[in-house]
Amino acid sequence: MTNSLIKRTDTLQDRFGLKTAAYLSSGTTSLPHDISERLRAARVQAVSMRKIAKTETASSMLNTGGSAALMWGSGDGLSWWARIGSVLPLIALVAGLLIINSIQNDNRAQEVAEVDVALLTDELPPAAFADPGFVQFLKATR
Question: 72 with 83: CB under 8 angstroms?
Answer without folding.
Answer: yes
